[in-house]
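Researcher: I'm preparing a figure for a lab meeting and need a structural model of a single chain. I don't have an experimental structure, so a prediction will have to do for now. The sequence is pasted below. Please return the structure as tokens so I can convert it later.
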Amino acid sequence: MQKNRSVIIWGNGAVGKGLAVALSGSFSVFLAGPHRSGRGSIELTSSGAFSGKGTVEKIESGDCIRCDYCVLALKAYDLKCAAKHAMASTDGRCICITNGMGLEEEWGESWNERVEPAVLTAGFHLLDRYAVEISGGDLIVSSGGSASDLFRESFLHVVPTFEMEIVRWSKWLVNSVINPLGALSGLRNNQLLKAGLGTAIDALTAELTGVIPAEMRDAASVKAGEMMDFLLESQPNKCSMLQDILSGRRTEIGYMTGLYKRKLKDCCPSAAIVFDLISARAYQP
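Model: Understood. Here is the structure written out token by token.
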């Protein structure tokens, strides 16, 4: 089938590969990985809540290519290095599905002009180099934005919103509570409450809610509660931070729980302990 539109996805991890499968039916997909990660056509498959397969073109981050759409499925700490290349790869806005807040500081001053955030509540897990398992959830996009148009025909459950900043803060709060607890305990999302971590969840939620800007705090807290209930009750996936630790990768704790250090400083004792414990996992004497 002739595909007249193209998309480049920056980030060849679980989320990047899962999104590549989702878009491969309607778009020519280019999947950009780091230097020396390889080039050429590859076939990817997804299973779980969203099953599919597709052939995509693997490229490296330094390759010069122009596409109709650009998606950022990167770790927060990689945004700074990718920003210039990503903006050069499309005339439109770069759709950013990266977890965490404070991302505009990594990207730079063109964030508001060139970046369109979106939020994933589905979980992604690499089964092997070419296979991704996807758990149920939504892709929340700005109403009338580029992401809404891009993912319209994909197998993902797309939910439009006019309140993207509230949604982003909601997801940040959920990630800042669930991810470090899952990473430290080694448990899946739907095992945390059963294992007796309800008190820890409540303590972290109460402390970190204060990080959310006052004008969005109430609305974001309500949405976060809905997301939290869904993930704790229904999501059997391993959170991304646990996957990072198991794979020996750097975590995004500084853009999640650790954001309290810039916003509230000494007012979050539970968050401080969790932040230190996650940071210690990366310590190399």
